[in-house]
Amino acid sequence: MSTARLDLDDVRRRVPTLSLIDDRTIREETARLTADAPDYFWRVPASVSDYHHPICREERGLWVHTLMLSTVIDRLADSYVGQGKLEAADVDLAHAAAILHDQRKNGSAENPQHSATQDHELRMADVAYESDLPDRVGDAIKSHMGPWYDGPAPASPLADLVHTADMIASTETITPAVAAPIPEELSQFDLRAADLG
């Protein structure tokens, strides 16, 4: 199995939360990396166990989870900025990390696993570190699982925001909305659209 590079316009359609990234360089680099996401990223469940919201346990659930996470980031970021924990520009980095965080969840494109790999956060962090994104994005991706999963603990407010938002977006009983417009491939889900613009 290989990865077919998506057209950047298709990436923007599939991930409407890219528009929440104000910095053009960060937005375009995040879109470029997403264009190279393994094909499975768009098709597989976020979890094959009882973890995650029931919608996210279905086909295309990993994609849905990613969109839900961006909505939670959008909601929590104002509090982090208001408390002086983050600068407003840091919110772009949080959105980039949210979009990218699980793009290697089932491993490599060439040899994907049936479910999450134990090091998926490190695999995707390495991709981010090798890109033109600031290393802080890779740091946030690397610690998004947190110490509860034998991963590194978030070491900065940015990483803490991504980790906390991921925990919320992964909760079985919480159903975050997703940024409008909802991609047509996800229309079979009972998703609530949010106008985050």
TrEMBL record:
Q: Which residues belong to any copy of the HD domain?
A: 64-167
The record ties this protein, via InterPro entries, to: HD_domain (IPR006674), HDIG_dom (IPR006675)
Pfam families with a match to the protein in the record: HD
Superkingdom of the source species: Archaea
Please give the name of this protein.
HD domain-containing protein
